[in-house]
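Exercise 7. Predict the joint structure of the components listed below.
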Amino acid sequence: MERVAIIGASMTPFGQRDAWVRELLAEAGAAALDDAGIDGDDLDHLYVSNMASGEFEGQTGVPNALAHDLAAQPAYTARIDQTSSSGGAGVYAAWQSVASGASDLTMLVGGEKMTHRTTAEATDVIASLTHPVEYKQGVTLPSFAGLTARLYLDEYDAPRESLGKVAVKNHANGVDNPHAQFRKEVDLDTVLDSPIVADPLRLYDFCPITDGSAALVFCPESVAAEYVPEDEYAVVSGIGGATDTHVVHERADPTTMGGVVDSSDIAYEMAGIGPDDIDVAELHDMFTILEFLQSEDLGFFEKGEGWKAVEEGVTDRDGDLPINTSGGLKSKGHPLGASGVAQVYEIFEQVTGNAGPRQVEADTGLACNVGGFGNCVTTTILEGNQ
Amino acid sequence: MSDNDATDDANAGDGSEETAEPTFEAAEYADGTVTYPPHTVSPNGAERVGTVDLREYEGHVLTWTTSTATPPGVREPNTLAIVEFELGDEYDGPAVRALGQIAGREDDSGETFDVDIGDRVEPVYAGELREPGAGIREPESQAWDGFRFRPVE
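Solution:
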């Protein structure tokens, strides 16, 4: 199997954008092509990670539209929808296309346009991924987070404040990310006094609704240096995808995300490393509680101990294991199909030494992208070449 | 434990016009496990052999939340709980749970019952849990009646 390198990356500003999904995808795609020093017609494969452009905007067929906009014909195209983990699934598809030898040059572009919808409408589009017996009860992804947060706090005797500290940390990190939706610090009192959304979680425990796009260019490692200097590419040393139950209440332990455990086991084995070898990580903090669950299920901390790591500053930018140096979904924003791509973009920037004021010491980084409430997960490990 | 033969309709008993009194149907499988909702096979891949009516059982609250940002057609606020049913000493399969709304008080206050982790609850039928057609899902694609939970007196 061919080892796969990432030779170009880009992301648009995340936030409330005037551009529609086609324009967002083209903006990120053109920038990634430029970053890799190639043209659209150099691509063999072009993938688009997107959850719901038809539902949000009435625009379907986005991969072909993007291929035309970037003059990438006759590249093979496909849309990758795995709900909130569409981006991670797209990374998997792009990696697979090169690793298998089917493509010598693949671009992945993830994007979503959401902010023209009301919060209630956007919430319902996302909640449509649930089983009929869940949907008819009016469940939302935020309410799954509230249910799980209450159980976690009760089971592991964690203080409510520890969840708020995730929001404080990630907002502080987002200040230095020029692409982030929110570049403003928040203090713990503001988080804990914000309106209740899904008790015990409050407004600042949740990511915003976001427009945006991000892109990555993949090729065989053996030819990566033909496109960019050796210290400017990274290698996908491990990647794994896995699922958990569709119906959330059927999980043996609702505070464990089996898809995170299984996908990371696969990625670690492929990379030949373990959780102790990870220098920096981007986790899917769509809700603050998810950062605890993933940091434990990825093996960074013992079960029920993730909250202590946040309290002790271990996951701060200057801590032993910086988590969400980009600001995470919490501060950077969460344009569904783009998020998993943007997570890998941040790790790419970190392991190639291009993260600017967010830079940490990192040779190896991990991104964990979660769909639904842990229903589908992709874990990706990048190694720098510095 | 089975009440009747398996059916292919995961929503059977959820307001079926042929059923005088709606049932809270879980599936039983050849390996002895029970799931709600019913699936094609058990978590271990065993075939369905019957159904279990969860109306006959009480449960306890595993966790709960009150959602204040609800989608179109959903009551606001919406208090939800994951309830774990107590199927008796003879059952040793995976926990059987359901996600459900907490029922409203019967005192015209418009409020739902208070619940906490560990509280004992029982199912109570509701003809419409959310307004069909108000949200994105096709109204004819699923049932909209079902069961809420209220504290056991």
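Discussion. Chain A has a mean pLDDT of 98.
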